[in-house]
Amino acid sequence: MYIFSNMTMSINRLRTEIMGGHDAGTHHQFTGIAKYFNSYTITGRRNCVLATYASIAALILFFKLKPKKQKAVKSS
Amino acid sequence: MMVSFFDQFASPSYLGIPLIAIAIALPWVLYPTPPARWINNRLITIQGWFINRFTNQLMLPLNVGGHKWALLLASLMIFLITINMLGLLPYTFTPTTQLSLNMGFAVPLWLATVIIGMRNQPTVALGHLLPEGTPIPLIPVLIIIETISLFIRPLALGVRLTANLTAGHLLIQLIATAVFVLLPMMPTVAILTAAVLFLLTLLEVAVAMIQAYVFVLLLSLYLQENV
């Protein structure tokens, strides 16, 4: 029975790969930060996208708001 | 007045009155509206059969939510294919050689598919920006690449149609001019060039139909991702 259920799982995975279907990622067991940021589950992918956009926005904001150094005026 | 090869792409006007509205509205005039009869004449029956078959084929990969777009996509296809084919007639103006018209179709329709996706299923729509199974070091790079490819879609849609039709019309005019110029000087070469012109015209008929179909098909694919 154990071998049969293993075979069914493998066949289902193979069917998903052949049909190019969307993998729900249910057979992945993520722990820790990988549970929220991974490239297998749809929520993991969404969080990665949002994190990347937030990082880019933070970088742009950082360089925009950075105070510009003024050159010291030399007395002649 | 110097006549150039690009005069065919100028917006038509007569005595200062712009004719672009007539050029764009022309396909509407050519298709008879089915009257309220149980059985219509052969022309309207064939017209209805083609439109139904095409719409059915286009809606196959879409789920029920995407079927709302059936009227829009079918009418867009008929409009584009008619304008493209009419433009192959001599001395006609082809509105789809204008980037403004094609971008006017591509940008709002693409944006509509993106907004529908973000509104109805934001997680799936955002998740599509990262291919499944991407290795961790490549994640940020691939997200940026996928975002760029998303925003390039309307540009590609509009420019593809414009470039294909403009290039085709220009080639036809160039080779036809070559035939006329060569005829008194080298008749044999002129006949060979005329044969090339004939084959090119056949190619342009195919391109006219295919480009209209590709435009609508790509839009339906973008819709399929988001609905």
UniProtKB/TrEMBL annotation, chain A:
One of its GO terms (cellular component) is mitochondrial membrane. It is found in: Mitochondrion membrane. InterPro entries: ATPMK. The chain crosses the membrane at residues 49-65. It is a single-pass membrane protein. Coiled coil: none annotated. Its main location: mitochondrion. The keyword Transmembrane helix applies. It comes from the Eukaryota. Keywords: Membrane, Mitochondrion, Transmembrane, Transmembrane helix. This is ATP synthase membrane subunit DAPIT. It comes from Cyprinus carpio.
UniProtKB/TrEMBL annotation, chain B:
GO terms for cellular component: mitochondrial inner membrane; proton-transporting ATP synthase complex. SUPFAM superfamilies: F1F0 ATP synthase subunit A. The keyword Mitochondrion applies. It is found in: Mitochondrion inner membrane. PROSITE patterns: ATPASE_A (PS00449). Gene3D superfamilies: ATP synthase, F0 complex, subunit A (1.20.120.220). Component of the ATP synthase complex composed at least of ATP5F1A/subunit alpha, ATP5F1B/subunit beta, ATP5MC1/subunit c (homooctomer), MT-ATP6/subunit a, MT-ATP8/subunit 8, ATP5ME/subunit e, ATP5MF/subunit f, ATP5MG/subunit g, ATP5MK/subunit k, ATP5MJ/subunit j, ATP5F1C/subunit gamma, ATP5F1D/subunit delta, ATP5F1E/subunit epsilon, ATP5PF/subunit F6, ATP5PB/subunit b, ATP5PD/subunit d, ATP5PO/subunit OSCP. NCBIfam families: ATP_synt_6_or_A. This is ATP synthase subunit a. It comes from Cyprinus carpio 'wananensis'. The lineage of its organism: Eukaryota, Metazoa, Chordata, Craniata, Vertebrata.
